[in-house]
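Thread amino acids onto this structure.
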């Protein structure tokens, strides 16, 4: 008999399914990091910017999957296959973290290189500009500094 207020049967994923899902998400993240690393080598900033949203989405998904796996730890610790898959997941996460650190260092280096380049251009412009000289109300000569201004922004 069908009851109008009966809740549907929602199936929770098994621990092994959760671990497989987390491994798949981790591999997707690794793929994005490899693309990012190649983009950094080719100075393809547009490609790196396009991947940011995907990386955030996948990272959030992986965090949720890991939280779900942690909640069912007592269940999957008794399953040998799940323990093996969890070990593989831990290895993949370690590779992901290493690659993420490498890419972060490359991004910081690229950012610093650009900042140094902009500063050297500014210094070259400043040394080549003539100083502005005006007369004050008292009749003395005022010489202003010939400095350009940089607008700071955070990334």
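Threaded sequence (155 positions):
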């Amino acid at each position: 008999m069908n009851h109008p207020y009966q809740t549907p049967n929602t199936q929770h994923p098994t621990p092994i399914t959760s671990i497989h899902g987390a491994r798949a998400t981790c591999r997707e993240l690794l793929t994005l990091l490899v693309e990012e690393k190649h983009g950094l080598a080719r100075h393809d900033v547009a490609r790196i910017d396009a991947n940011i949203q995907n990386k955030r989405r996948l990272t959030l998904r992986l965090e949720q999957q890991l939280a779900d796996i942690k909640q069912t730890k007592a269940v999957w610790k008794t399953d040998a296959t799940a323990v093996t898959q969890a070990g593989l997941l831990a290895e993949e996460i370690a590779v992901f973290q290493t690659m993420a650190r490498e890419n972060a260092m490359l991004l910081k280096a690229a950012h610093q290189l650009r900042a140094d380049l902009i500063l050297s251009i500014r210094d070259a412009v400043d040394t080549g500009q003539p100083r502005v000289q005006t007369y004050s109300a008292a009749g003395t000569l005022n010489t202003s500094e010939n400095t350009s201004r940089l607008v700071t922004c955070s990334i």
